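REQUEST FORM: STRUCTURE PREDICTION
Request ID: SP-0412
Submitted by: Lab K.M.
Chain count: 1
Length (residues): 129
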Amino acid sequence: MLMSAQAEPPVCKIMDYGKFRFDRDKKEKEARKKQKVIEVKEIQLTCLIDVNDFNTKVNHARRFLTDGNKVKVMVKFKGRQMSRQDVGKELLERFKGACADLGSPEKAPILEGRNMIMFIAPAKTAAAK
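STATUS: Completed
RESULT:
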Protein backbone atom coordinates (compact mmCIF):
# COMPACT_ATOMS: atom_id res chain seq x y z
CA MET A 1 0.00 0.00 0.00
CA LEU A 2 1.35 3.43 -0.98
CA MET A 3 1.73 5.58 2.16
CA SER A 4 3.36 8.77 0.83
CA ALA A 5 3.64 9.36 -2.90
CA GLN A 6 5.30 12.80 -2.58
CA ALA A 7 8.32 11.53 -0.62
CA GLU A 8 11.64 10.76 -2.38
CA PRO A 9 11.67 7.74 -2.77
CA PRO A 10 7.93 6.96 -2.33
CA VAL A 11 7.10 5.23 0.97
CA CYS A 12 5.16 1.96 0.77
CA LYS A 13 3.87 -0.46 3.39
CA ILE A 14 3.78 -4.22 2.93
CA MET A 15 0.53 -5.69 4.22
CA ASP A 16 -1.76 -8.71 3.97
CA TYR A 17 -4.22 -8.09 1.09
CA GLY A 18 -6.87 -10.38 2.63
CA LYS A 19 -6.87 -8.36 5.85
CA PHE A 20 -7.00 -5.10 3.86
CA ARG A 21 -10.06 -6.34 1.92
CA PHE A 22 -11.74 -7.53 5.14
CA ASP A 23 -11.28 -4.14 6.81
CA ARG A 24 -12.51 -2.28 3.71
CA ASP A 25 -15.64 -4.46 3.46
CA LYS A 26 -16.32 -4.01 7.17
CA LYS A 27 -16.19 -0.20 6.83
CA GLU A 28 -18.56 -0.31 3.84
CA LYS A 29 -20.99 -2.51 5.77
CA GLU A 30 -21.01 -0.05 8.70
CA ALA A 31 -21.65 2.84 6.30
CA ARG A 32 -24.62 0.98 4.78
CA LYS A 33 -26.14 0.40 8.23
CA LYS A 34 -26.24 4.13 8.92
CA GLN A 35 -28.08 4.98 5.69
CA LYS A 36 -31.81 5.70 5.81
CA VAL A 37 -33.85 4.14 3.03
CA ILE A 38 -36.77 6.30 1.94
CA GLU A 39 -39.81 4.27 0.97
CA VAL A 40 -42.75 5.44 -1.11
CA LYS A 41 -46.07 4.71 0.60
CA GLU A 42 -49.23 4.78 -1.51
CA ILE A 43 -52.67 6.08 -0.54
CA GLN A 44 -55.63 5.52 -2.85
CA LEU A 45 -58.71 7.73 -2.89
CA THR A 46 -61.87 7.90 -4.98
CA CYS A 47 -63.84 10.96 -6.06
CA LEU A 48 -66.81 10.08 -3.85
CA ILE A 49 -64.83 9.62 -0.60
CA ASP A 50 -66.64 10.61 2.58
CA VAL A 51 -65.26 13.09 5.14
CA ASN A 52 -64.31 10.54 7.82
CA ASP A 53 -62.66 8.23 5.29
CA PHE A 54 -60.73 11.20 3.93
CA ASN A 55 -59.57 12.15 7.43
CA THR A 56 -58.43 8.57 8.06
CA LYS A 57 -56.36 8.59 4.86
CA VAL A 58 -54.87 11.96 5.82
CA ASN A 59 -53.88 10.58 9.23
CA HIS A 60 -52.15 7.62 7.53
CA ALA A 61 -50.27 10.00 5.25
CA ARG A 62 -49.24 12.19 8.18
CA ARG A 63 -47.87 9.14 9.99
CA PHE A 64 -45.90 8.12 6.88
CA LEU A 65 -44.48 11.63 6.52
CA THR A 66 -43.39 11.78 10.16
CA ASP A 67 -41.57 8.46 9.63
CA GLY A 68 -39.65 10.14 6.79
CA ASN A 69 -41.29 8.31 3.87
CA LYS A 70 -42.65 9.82 0.67
CA VAL A 71 -46.38 9.49 0.01
CA LYS A 72 -47.94 8.78 -3.37
CA VAL A 73 -51.57 9.96 -3.35
CA MET A 74 -53.71 8.47 -6.09
CA VAL A 75 -57.30 9.36 -7.01
CA LYS A 76 -58.96 6.59 -9.04
CA PHE A 77 -61.65 7.53 -11.53
CA LYS A 78 -64.31 4.93 -12.37
CA GLY A 79 -66.63 5.02 -15.36
CA ARG A 80 -68.09 8.46 -16.03
CA GLN A 81 -66.07 10.09 -13.26
CA MET A 82 -63.41 10.76 -15.91
CA SER A 83 -65.53 13.67 -17.12
CA ARG A 84 -65.26 15.28 -13.64
CA GLN A 85 -61.48 15.43 -13.25
CA ASP A 86 -61.77 18.80 -11.52
CA VAL A 87 -63.30 16.98 -8.50
CA GLY A 88 -60.20 14.77 -8.26
CA LYS A 89 -57.88 17.75 -8.56
CA GLU A 90 -59.81 19.56 -5.83
CA LEU A 91 -59.57 16.45 -3.61
CA LEU A 92 -55.79 16.33 -4.05
CA GLU A 93 -55.54 20.05 -3.23
CA ARG A 94 -57.47 19.43 0.00
CA PHE A 95 -55.16 16.51 0.78
CA LYS A 96 -52.11 18.69 0.13
CA GLY A 97 -53.48 21.36 2.47
CA ALA A 98 -54.11 18.82 5.23
CA CYS A 99 -50.49 17.58 5.05
CA ALA A 100 -48.89 20.99 4.44
CA ASP A 101 -47.16 21.22 7.84
CA LEU A 102 -45.43 17.82 7.47
CA GLY A 103 -44.63 17.71 3.76
CA SER A 104 -44.71 19.50 0.46
CA PRO A 105 -45.74 18.21 -2.97
CA GLU A 106 -42.88 17.28 -5.29
CA LYS A 107 -44.91 17.96 -8.41
CA ALA A 108 -48.42 19.04 -9.32
CA PRO A 109 -51.18 16.42 -9.73
CA ILE A 110 -50.83 14.55 -13.03
CA LEU A 111 -53.40 12.42 -14.83
CA GLU A 112 -52.04 9.01 -15.82
CA GLY A 113 -54.69 6.89 -17.48
CA ARG A 114 -57.65 6.71 -15.09
CA ASN A 115 -55.61 7.83 -12.08
CA MET A 116 -54.56 11.28 -10.91
CA ILE A 117 -51.28 11.09 -9.00
CA MET A 118 -49.40 13.44 -6.68
CA PHE A 119 -46.22 12.81 -4.64
CA ILE A 120 -45.68 14.42 -1.24
CA ALA A 121 -42.15 14.53 0.18
CA PRO A 122 -41.54 14.91 3.93
CA ALA A 123 -40.35 18.27 5.20
CA LYS A 124 -36.89 18.41 6.78
CA THR A 125 -38.30 19.06 10.27
CA ALA A 126 -40.79 16.18 10.02
CA ALA A 127 -38.08 13.75 8.95
CA ALA A 128 -35.80 14.88 11.80
CA LYS A 129 -38.42 14.00 14.41
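NOTES: The radius of gyration is 25 Å.
Reviewed by: T.R.
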